[in-house]
Please model this.
Amino acid sequence: MLKTGFTKLIGCSVPIQQAGMAALANPELAAAVSEAGALGMVSVGGFPPEKVTRELELVRKRTLRPFGANFLIPGLTDEDIPEVSESVRAASKLARLVEFFYHEPQAELVKIVHSERALACWQVGSKVEAGAATDAGCDMIIAQGIEAGGHIRGRIGLMALLDQVLSKTDIPVIAAGGISSGRAMAASLAAGAAAVRVGTRFAAAEEAGAHPVYQRALVKSEAEDTIFTEAFGRGWPNAPHRVTRSSVEAAQAFQGEEVGQRYVKSSDEWAPVLRFQPIAVTKEVRGNVEAMPHWAGEGVGSVKSILPAAKIVDQLSDEAEKLLRRWSSQSFG
Ligand SMILES: Cc1cc2nc3c(=O)[nH]c(=O)nc-3n(C[C@H](O)[C@H](O)[C@H](O)COP(=O)(O)O)c2cc1C
Model:
């Protein structure tokens, strides 16, 4: 098995981290990934502390291995900090790794994570943000290239970003963006990443909460079918993301404002999904699902079928290991 500083730090056997992916990264997926020896992540951004605890306990019931919690925190204000801090504290009591995305690194949140003996991580898109995350006391960072699916901080390709970020910091760097194959995983590890973070490939896992229409679109798509856009910006403007071109075109062609509905468990109601609303396309949406955002990174061409998460972990790590062994046994003299 591949061993890196990251796996030793986290206690995993495979240097793969499943991305937090809003409601798609549910406890079932996270537990399956962790059971397979990688690091499963649950998305808990926006949840009150009691709900964070409930979600993470669902993972703990399924696995005794380490797992992580992800906080997507766009637009965090000073007034939000006290409530978010309590949710972060709740997550840090149960998760080995607590990570944050879409806000400048905050030392205050990192301190809370450490006070509960968890590890803190920030997903960043530039060397400036990497420096800020290091200064905020993070134990590791994720460098996210522009190839990534979902919302994107990176503005340059992953390899160029890794080069910049690895020169800027001494803490472990996890590579993210377009990594859906063992080949891309091997390239990132060979370039100096301590681990890889994989989103799109796990959105197509059997255990993920993704809607079947969205999963089928992932299987059909190639890298060229994705676009970097701000199209799905309703309620969250100026936030570039990568989705399939066909989902943008379907939303543009849709006549009307309400493309469908999503089920809201807390109120047991169906709420409207508006055109260009940046929602997680889970199994609990209905309507014109084709016109909802099909988040996808440039590695989507390697998504050939819907597989159990453990199989995805095995395929990625076996292929990467084979390539890295072949590479290290070659003579360059
Ligand atoms: C469907 C989807 C939802 C995402 N939601 C989140 C999220 O809630 N929090 C987060 O930190 N990153 C999120 N991301 C971005 C990932 O953290 C990661 O950067 C990205 O998936 C890596 O690129 P890849 O999708 O090509 O593997 C999401 C990505 C996808 C594909």
User: Anything to note?
Assistant: The first helix runs from residue 5 to 10. DSSP finds twelve helices and 14 strands in the chain. The domain at 12-208 is CATH 3.20.20.70 (TIM Barrel).
